[in-house]
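Async update (no meeting this week)

Hi team, since we skipped the sync, here's where things stand on the single-chain job. The sequence we agreed to prioritize is pasted below, unchanged from the tracker. I ran it this morning and attached the output directly underneath so nobody has to dig for it. Comments welcome in thread, and please keep replies under the output.
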Amino acid sequence: MAATEELQPLTGATKLLGTVSLALATFMNVLDTSIANVSLSSIGGDLGVSTTQVTWVITSFGVANAIAVPLTGWLSQRFGAVRLFTVSIVLFTIASLLCGLATSLQELIVFRVLQGAVAGPMIPLSQALLLSSFSKAKAGTALAIWAMTTLVAPVMGPLLGGWITDNISWPWIFYINIPVGMFAAAVTWSIYRRRETARRKLPIDGVGLGMLIVWVSALQIMLDKGEELDWFHSSTIIALAVVAAVVFCLFIAWELVENAHPVVDLRLFKRRNFWTGTLAFALGYGVFFGNVVVLPLWLQQYMGYTATEAGMLTAPVGILALLLSPFVGRWVGRVDQRLLATVAFVIFGISLYMRTRYNTQADFGFLVAPIIVQGAAMAFFFVPLVSLILTGLAPERIPAASGLSNFARILSGSFGTSIATTLWDNRAILHHAQLTEYVSNSSAATQGYVRALQAAGLSPQQAGAVINRSIDVESHLLAANDLFWVSSILFLIMIGVIWCARPIKTNLPPGVAGGAH
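Output:
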């Protein structure tokens, strides 16, 4: 059983196949965080449940995944990184099959919980195993490959999910994982089984695990259901917030003070570059993902786009991301990572500011331009920040560090989604009230518009509904522009967090680079 630091980089076809298998597993995992979003109406219709109930298909996966990700470090030490990763792929594939076969909402939720739980270790371990496949000099390239899969999958999810739902049937959004998972598991095990990491029989931190499950579940459900239940006007949301806060504090105390074998290695936060990199990673992803969620909602609900069309409009974000990521992978060892990450945040700010110029008459080209620009930001976002996060860590700590930083990213994405959708709705209500003030019986423009609608055959009530819909469309446009403007400013402010990190001369520290030998 080889220790990670004794391994030599892979070469030739073996390296290519190993990289492809790891990338496919990561792609499949990340894809499933978003592919079901545009299929909820079809799923609810087939299973005979309401739209509100069917959202648990998303929530259940998110809760289970958020709990499992930070456990990666402990699990990989206990069972070995290669074994854990391969078993996770196999179980994920089986869970995907079961999701497609589900005949009731209850069954689908149970299988989505299983799918989310077994998916937890896959992203952190794919990162660690990919680093072990490349030499120290090519570690930046390895991270760039990993970044490209995590960048493209969330964009492809809604597009692929919408097309499958419209043209085949919703179970196939899960069935497509089966051939991918079988191939990835078989190739990964055949290549990496002789490169297994050292195992240690660590005791199970049952108390810490229990508290982690409780506070993460309470927080995730609160964030997912907050908008629906009107946030803190709901006793349910208040109860969830109190439980999450209290148990979180107890969890921190237990993991840091009382427990010699923590289920989550919070001592990583003592390292300056780890906490600064993780904070910038999480905050940036939270703001980014909140806008990713709102944009297709606006397009579909107020611009008349179908799910497939909305996916086609957002898909070009991957163009510059794919083209630039390999270059960033090479630059990350030669240029200060803080500078590269700053470029990402500046471009994010510019692309979001460009969106503040959106209007209800905007054509496809005008809408897609900021999205293409945003692709450049995504290329500069992942690789430098992941490099900062892993600075100075020994190879055996990489799974724990990657798991914890990705946990922060996932949780921040939930926060970003909840905050963005709430801000969008609240600002739309405000703009609707302000615009309505200009519509009155004493207004000549209003009277003229009503007469034109009635001349077209509409009743007074129908004319009023058309006017109200026009106001609704305009108010949600203005609200979206407000969100884009605030997000643009936030990205520029968050640059300060990046520069709290210490400069490093190479793309990965000796410990991490050792993982590639």
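Quick observations from my side:
The chain has 23 helices and no strands.
Confidence is low (pLDDT under 50) at residues 1-5, 507-517.
Reply here if anything looks off.
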